[in-house]
Amino acid sequence: MNELEHWMRHALALAAKGRGSVEPNPMVGAVVLDAAGRLAGEGWHQTFGGPHAEVFALSSAGERARGGTLVVTLEPCCHHGKTPPCTDAVLRAGIVRVVVAMADPFPKVAGGGIALLRAAGVEVHVGLCEADAVALNAPYLKLLRTGRPWVHLKWAMTLDGKIATWTGDSKWISGEESRRRVHELRGRVDAIIVGRGTVVADDPLLTARPPGPRAPARVVLSASGELPERCQLRTTARSVGSDTGGPVIVYTANADKLVGWAADGADVVALGDGVSLDAVLADLGRRRFTNVLIEGGAGLLGSAFDERVGDEFHVFVAPKLIGGTAAPAPLGGLGVQQMADAVALDRVTSEPFGADVYIHGFAPRGGQSAGPPVTG
């Protein structure tokens, strides 16, 4: 690993500190090296609407930036948005070389920042650690490319592959350490999505405890519109906050059955004759949601699997046995017919969480396809 790669990997680690706080913006990290190649300053994009990584890094470097190198994980912006163009700050600081991991496909940038710097006489190199930069900002890139958010699928199951007993009891399959990890994940996404069955069976609040950087929207999919008259989601729909949760959004094909929910503060969205996951994700994308978490139950997770909308998987396996043919497995739906069609995850890791094992992986390819409506 050469010096520039070392500093780019350091910048990528800095960028990751913004996870959950900067979306729908990308995570960006930057390092300034002085003319002798020594670290002079560093920074990362910390909050949505706040200063960009380059500004933090250049500010911390001060006059030591003059004649130096900027190492940054994403192409510097060249347009006026919530903040001034970063290219202006780079030129004012006297930077003579910029090393960029990847170009920014955002239409108002899209190579313009690189071109502007080169036109001003700055030496610009693009592509160092590009694959890592792309992986880091995969949710941002997917939203730009498809108009849909990055979809996390999560479930906890027993060693024999069950998510509840045949009576529907599921508290608790996983241990405290695993549940803490789930709450950390909840606190970094824009929405938590469940189906009607989960609302009826578990009466969830769908919050992050303790609160994280975000108060995720609480999303329910119910084609029938048959939801409980009394439940935590309905009674807290107006009480938006870090403790009570984000806004409640209900997608349905029968909005007339949810007039009471709407009166209590829920955003009831009618979606034709059924509730297609693709239509739901398209609407969430229009709201600029970057990451969403589908928690179940089996029907919704099965629909997500059949439609191949999952991008990232979080599975907790507990060393417990339930048994019973009527006890549900995590994925309902149609499934695949042959093992040759099974989905093999990429970049799979596993680690112990107390007595449980956490398995984390990614879908082998991106993209979405419209599929059959979700029922329930």
From TrEMBL:
<comment type="similarity">
    <text>In the C-terminal section; belongs to the HTP reductase family.</text>
</comment>
<comment type="similarity">
    <text>In the N-terminal section; belongs to the cytidine and deoxycytidylate deaminase family.</text>
</comment>
<comment type="function">
    <text>Converts 2,5-diamino-6-(ribosylamino)-4(3h)-pyrimidinone 5'-phosphate into 5-amino-6-(ribosylamino)-2,4(1h,3h)-pyrimidinedione 5'-phosphate.</text>
</comment>
<dbReference type="InterPro" id="IPR002734">
    <property type="entry name" value="RibDG_C"/>
</dbReference>
<feature type="binding site">
    <location>
        <position position="186"/>
    </location>
    <ligand>
        <name>substrate</name>
    </ligand>
</feature>
<keyword id="KW-0862">Zinc</keyword>
<feature type="binding site">
    <location>
        <position position="198"/>
    </location>
    <ligand>
        <name>NADP(+)</name>
    </ligand>
</feature>
<protein>
    <recommendedName>
        <fullName>Riboflavin biosynthesis protein RibD</fullName>
        <ecNumber>3.5.4.26</ecNumber>
        <ecNumber>1.1.1.193</ecNumber>
    </recommendedName>
</protein>
<keyword id="KW-0521">NADP</keyword>
<keyword id="KW-0479">Metal-binding</keyword>
<dbReference type="GO" id="GO:0050661">
    <property type="term" value="F:NADP binding"/>
</dbReference>
<dbReference type="Pfam" id="PF00383">
    <property type="entry name" value="dCMP_cyt_deam_1"/>
</dbReference>
<feature type="active site" description="Proton donor">
    <location>
        <position position="54"/>
    </location>
</feature>
<keyword id="KW-0560">Oxidoreductase</keyword>
<feature type="binding site">
    <location>
        <position position="170"/>
    </location>
    <ligand>
        <name>substrate</name>
    </ligand>
</feature>
<dbReference type="GO" id="GO:0008270">
    <property type="term" value="F:zinc ion binding"/>
</dbReference>
<feature type="binding site">
    <location>
        <position position="156"/>
    </location>
    <ligand>
        <name>NADP(+)</name>
    </ligand>
</feature>
<dbReference type="InterPro" id="IPR002125">
    <property type="entry name" value="CMP_dCMP_dom"/>
</dbReference>
<dbReference type="InterPro" id="IPR024072">
    <property type="entry name" value="DHFR-like_dom_sf"/>
</dbReference>
<feature type="binding site">
    <location>
        <begin position="297"/>
        <end position="303"/>
    </location>
    <ligand>
        <name>NADP(+)</name>
    </ligand>
</feature>
<dbReference type="GO" id="GO:0009231">
    <property type="term" value="P:riboflavin biosynthetic process"/>
</dbReference>
<dbReference type="InterPro" id="IPR011549">
    <property type="entry name" value="RibD_C"/>
</dbReference>
<dbReference type="GO" id="GO:0008835">
    <property type="term" value="F:diaminohydroxyphosphoribosylaminopyrimidine deaminase activity"/>
</dbReference>
<feature type="binding site">
    <location>
        <position position="206"/>
    </location>
    <ligand>
        <name>substrate</name>
    </ligand>
</feature>
<keyword id="KW-0378">Hydrolase</keyword>
<dbReference type="InterPro" id="IPR016192">
    <property type="entry name" value="APOBEC/CMP_deaminase_Zn-bd"/>
</dbReference>
<comment type="pathway">
    <text>Cofactor biosynthesis; riboflavin biosynthesis; 5-amino-6-(D-ribitylamino)uracil from GTP: step 2/4.</text>
</comment>
<keyword id="KW-0511">Multifunctional enzyme</keyword>
<feature type="domain" description="CMP/dCMP-type deaminase">
    <location>
        <begin position="2"/>
        <end position="124"/>
    </location>
</feature>
<dbReference type="GO" id="GO:0008703">
    <property type="term" value="F:5-amino-6-(5-phosphoribosylamino)uracil reductase activity"/>
</dbReference>
<feature type="binding site">
    <location>
        <position position="209"/>
    </location>
    <ligand>
        <name>substrate</name>
    </ligand>
</feature>
<keyword id="KW-0686">Riboflavin biosynthesis</keyword>
<feature type="binding site">
    <location>
        <position position="172"/>
    </location>
    <ligand>
        <name>NADP(+)</name>
    </ligand>
</feature>
<comment type="pathway">
    <text>Cofactor biosynthesis; riboflavin biosynthesis; 5-amino-6-(D-ribitylamino)uracil from GTP: step 3/4.</text>
</comment>
<feature type="binding site">
    <location>
        <position position="77"/>
    </location>
    <ligand>
        <name>Zn(2+)</name>
    </ligand>
</feature>
<dbReference type="Pfam" id="PF01872">
    <property type="entry name" value="RibD_C"/>
</dbReference>
<dbReference type="InterPro" id="IPR004794">
    <property type="entry name" value="Eubact_RibD"/>
</dbReference>
<dbReference type="InterPro" id="IPR016193">
    <property type="entry name" value="Cytidine_deaminase-like"/>
</dbReference>
<feature type="binding site">
    <location>
        <position position="295"/>
    </location>
    <ligand>
        <name>substrate</name>
    </ligand>
</feature>
<feature type="binding site">
    <location>
        <position position="202"/>
    </location>
    <ligand>
        <name>NADP(+)</name>
    </ligand>
</feature>
<feature type="binding site">
    <location>
        <position position="86"/>
    </location>
    <ligand>
        <name>Zn(2+)</name>
    </ligand>
</feature>
<dbReference type="InterPro" id="IPR050765">
    <property type="entry name" value="Riboflavin_Biosynth_HTPR"/>
</dbReference>
